[in-house]
Automatic annotation (TrEMBL):
Annotated Peptidase A1 domain residues: 51-362
Species classification: Eukaryota, Metazoa, Spiralia, Gnathifera, Rotifera
GO BP: proteolysis
Protein name per Swiss-Prot or TrEMBL: Peptidase A1 domain-containing protein
Catalytic residues in the record: D69, D251
C-alpha cells in the first residue's frame, strides 16, 4: 500500500480480453444432470476494498486466501519456488501433494499498472468450502510484482473466453463434476467491515435471506465478462448520464464504479467533484452542500432502479480541519463500458447464471448501512438557506446537450449513535490503503 499522495487501487484486476462464444459456453454445461446441493463460502471484508475467501489445493490440502473475481477466469496462486517477489504470501508446494499433476505450459499475465504474474500451469484437486474439484488446471506463480494484497491469489469466475491459459475455469468443472445443483453462483457483500463474516459466495444457488424483494435479471450481452445492457444512468431527477448504448460489467474484482470518461466527468460534475491528479480521484468538500443536496445516482437495469445515495458513493475522510468527500466513480479502462465494482455490489445482491447467460440483482439486506458521520461533515441547513449549486454537464456516447442541477436545501439527516459501528473519520493512511485506482489490464 502506498503512503504518498498518489493513490493506487490494489484491488482490482479485470481481464482485457473478451469474446462472444455462446456455443462454447453452452456445450460446456449441456446434458449435465445434477443432484448436488449449493454451498456457501464465507468471505472476509478487507476495508471495503475487496472480499476474500479461503480455498485449498492438493492432498493433503494447502490453504490460500483468495480474491474471487468475476472480471477474469484464471486461478493462480504463488509457488513454493517463488522467492522474494511473493513476499509473505502462502505458497503451493507440489511435492507435498499426492494429487499433483504436472502440466508444463507457461503462464504469464500482465496488467496496465506494470504489475504481472509469471509461472506455469499445473493441475491438482482444488477445494472450495468442502467441494473438491479434481484435475483442476491452475497457475503456479514463480514471479509476481505489484501484488501487496492480503489475498494470496485470484480465482476467476468469468466465462472461459477470458482464460489466459485456455483452461476450463474452476466453476465450470465444479458443475461438470456434479458438485453443485445448477450453474449459478451469487455474492453477498456486507459494507460494514466490522461484521464477521463480511459476506458470502453461494456456489450453485442464492441465499434469499440476504436480499429483499426479487432478483431483476438482465441477459448477458457479450460473453467473456459478465457484460449486460443498462437502461439508463441518472444523477438526481434532472441529469441523465447515459440513456442509450449503456453497457456494464459486474466485477467483484474492482473496488470502485467506473465508466466512460465523458460520462464520469458529467456524473462527478453533478456532485460538484473535481479530478485531482495527485490522488487519481474525484473529490469535493463535504461541506459544500447539505447531505441531501447531493443527488442520488440511479442505475436502471432490467427495468428496475438501483439507487446509491450520498453515504453510499462517497468515501468521507477527516483531514483534521475539514471533511473531504471522495467519489467512488472513476474512469473505466474499457471503451464505452461501465464496471460495477464492489461499491455497487455491496449494496445489491448479485447472481450469475451461466446456464441462462444472465445476471440478477436485488437490494441487499445491508443496503441501508452507513458509516457514522459527524454533524459538521455536511453543510448545515441554516448556512445553505441562501445557497444553491448549479452544475452544467454534457455527455457524449448517446447523450448530448447540457442539463443543470440545482441542489435542494432540505434538512440534513445524520446518523445517530445507534447500533451502527462508529467510524469516526478515516485518516489518510487508511484512505491510501483502501483505494487503489489503477485497474490491472492484460
Amino acid at each position: 500500500m502506498i503512503c504518498s499522495m498518489t493513490v493506487e487501487i490494489s484491488c482490482k484486476r479485470i481481464s482485457s480480453s473478451s469474446s462472444s462464444s455462446s456455443d462454447t459456453t453452452s456445450s460446456k454445461i449441456a446434458s449435465i444432470q445434477n443432484k448436488a446441493t449449493s454451498v456457501d463460502e464465507n468471505l472476509i471484508n478487507e476495508m471495503n476494498s475487496y472480499w476474500m475467501g479461503t480455498i485449498s489445493i492438493g492432498t493433503p490440502p494447502q490453504s490460500f486466501n483468495i480474491d474471487f473475481d468475476t472480471g477474469s477466469s484464471d486461478l493462480w496462486i504463488p509457488s513454493i519456488r517463488c522467492l522474494s517477489s511473493c513476499g509473505n504470501h502462502s505458497r503451493y508446494n507440489a511435492n507435498k501433494s499426492s494429487t499433483y499433476q504436472a502440466n508444463g505450459a507457461s503462464f504469464s499475465i500482465s496488467y496496465g499498472d506494470g504489475s504481472f504474474v509469471k509461472g506455469y500451469l499445473d493441475s491438482d484437486t482444488v477445494t472450495v468450502d468442502g467441494l473438491s474439484v479434481v484435475n483442476q488446471v491452475f497457475a503456479e506463480a514463480l514471479n509476481m510484482s505489484g501484488f501487496n494484497d492480503v489475498s494470496d491469489g485470484l480465482l476467476g469466475l468469468a466465462y472461459p473466453d477470458l482464460a489466459n491459459g485456455g483452461e476450463t475455469p474452476l466453476f465450470y468443472n465444479m458443475y461438470a463434476q456434479n458438485l453443485i445443483p445448477q450453474p449459478v453462483f451469487s455474492f453477498y457483500f456486507n459494507p460494514d467491515s466490522s461484521v464477521v463474516p463480511g459476506g458470502e459466495l453461494i456456489l450453485g444457488g442464492a441465499d434469499t435471506s440476504k436480499y429483499t424483494g426479487s432478483l431483476a435479471y438482465v441477459n448477458v450481452s457479450t460473453q467473456g465478462y459478465w457484460q449486460f445492457k443498462v437502461n439508463s444512468i441518472t444523477a438526481g431527477s434532472t441529469t441523465t448520464i447515459c440513456s442509450s448504448n449503456c453497457n456494464a460489467i459486474a466485477d467483484t474484482g474492482t473496488t470502485l464504479i467506473l465508466g466512460p470518461t465523458s460520462q464520469i466527468n458529467a456524473l462527478n460534475a453533478a456532485l460538484g467533484a473535481t479530478y485531482h491528479a495527485s490522488t487519481g480521484l474525484y473529490s469535493v468538500s463535504c461541506s459544500s452542500r447539505t447531505q441531501q443536496g447531493f443527488p442520488n445516482i440511479t442505475f436502471t437495469i432490467g427495468g428496475q432502479q438501483f439507487t446509491l445515495s450520498v453515504l453510499q458513493y462517497f468515501i468521507i475522510v477527516n483531514s483534521g480541519s475539514s471533511f473531504t468527500c471522495y467519489s467512488v466513480f472513476g474512469v473505466s479502462p474499457l471503451t464505452n463500458v461501465w464496471i460495477l465494482g464492489d461499491y455497487f455490489l455491496s449494496r445489491f445482491y448479485s447472481l450469475y447464471d451461466i446456464g441462462q447467460n444472465r445476471v440478477g440483482f436485488a437490494t441487499s439486506i445491508s443496503y441501508n448501512y452507513a458509516p457514522y458521520v459527524y454533524p459538521q461533515t455536511f453543510q448545515s441547513t441554516t448556512s445553505a438557506a441562501s445557497t444553491t449549486h448549479s452544475t452544467t454537464v454534457s455527455t457524449t456516447n448517446g447523450n448530448t446537450g447540457s442539463t443543470s442541477f440545482t441542489a435542494p436545501t432540505t434538512t440534513v439527516s445524520t446518523m445517530t449513535n445507534s447500533s451502527k459501528t462508529m467510524h469516526r473519520g478515516i485518516d489518510w493512511t487508511i484512505l491510501f490503503s483502501l483505494i487503489v485506482i489503477y485497474i490491472r489490464l492484460q
